[in-house]
Design brief:
About 50% of the residues lie in helices and about 15% in strands. With about 280 residues, it is of the alpha/beta class. It has one domain: Rossmann fold, CATH 3.40.50. Helix 1 links the parallel strand 1 and strand 2. Helix 1 crosses helix 7. The longest helix is centred in the middle third of the chain and has 29 residues. The termini are far apart.
Length: about 280
């Protein structure tokens, strides 16, 4: 889709983190916004900021794991701003822990929010997009959707699934005016899970570096305009690691440990466990 001005986008997980940056990038292109998240107070602040940029914006309290909430999100979007042209599946659950100790309910929630909900939301908007002859779906995955990392079993499984879903949908939509893309950020400074780790003194290895949330938002726009099936947002040293994960998977785990990636996730898992014990 080249012409974005005047279109309508749903952005889930829009109350904080990367979602805010994606919403702002879309608003700067003249896209009207349906902002969805579980926290309505925070969401209303984002809505006001987006309206100040000259677009229409509504805030919808929505737990994407709820079928009723998903249906209501689509209903309000269409009733208040019109047909949905863009769906940005950004909402996600971010957990790190040793798999042997993870509560079964946490596994289910992670897979439901990170994988099942984006698939079902996509299914709700896709028929209308195909009928109108325009539309694009962008799923926000992660570098952990390309490379398995320790302490991130459920998270990695959900993000790998999201990457696979997007690739399959993109191929299915080939030859239609509707597209599907997945964006895979690495450690994102100033937003999301990694920003919370930074606040606890947990930092990525120097060789890995970090990505900026603005770069993730730009990647979303690029995917929409060019119908790119996938965009990775990370530093150059990380890219060979993603290639190795596909052609020589057995060497990835020791390499992650050697460059310090594994230790980052181990420290984050320990910090999370300590917080649960003292909270």
């Amino acid at each position: 889709m080249q012409q974005l001005r005047g279109t309508t986008a749903i952005v889930t997980g829009a109350s904080r983190g990367i979602g805010v940056y994606i919403a702002r990038a879309l608003a700067n292109e003249g896209v009207n916004l349906v902002l969805a998240a579980r926290s309505l107070d925070e969401l209303e602040k984002v809505r006001a900021d987006m309206q100040a940029l000259g677009v229409k914006a509504i805030a919808v309290k929505c737990d994407v794991s709820s079928a009723d909430d998903r249906a209501e999100l689509i209903r309000r979007a269409e009733a208040e701003l019109g047909p949905v042209d863009l769906l940005i599946n950004n909402a996600g659950v971010e957990r790190v822990a040793r798999f042997a100790t993870v509560a079964p309910a946490d596994i289910v929630e992670t897979l439901t929010v990170n994988l099942e909900a984006p698939m079902l939301l996509s299914q709700l908007v896709l028929p209308g997009m195909l009928e109108r002859g325009r539309g694009h779906i962008v799923n926000i995955a992660s570098g952990a959707g390309k490379v398995g990392v320790p302490m991130g079993t459920s998270y990695c499984a959900s993000k790998h699934g999201l990457v696979g879903f997007t690739h399959s949908l993109h191929a299915e939509l080939r030859g239609t005016p509707v597209g599907a893309s997945v964006v895979c950020p690495a450690f994102v400074a100033d937003a999301g899970m990694y920003a919370r780790w930074e606040a606890k003194g947990i930092k990525s290895p120097m060789i890995a570096g970090t990505a900026k949330p603005e770069a993730v938002a730009k990647a979303v726009l690029r995917c929409i305009r060019k119908n790119k099936v996938e965009a990775t947002v990370n530093t150059p040293p990380v890219r060979p690691l993603i290639i190795l994960a596909n052609i020589a998977p057995s060497i990835v785990a020791p390499l992650l440990e050697k460059i310090g990636y594994s230790q980052v996730f181990e420290r984050a898992a320990e910090a999370t466990a300590d917080a649960r014990l003292t909270g």
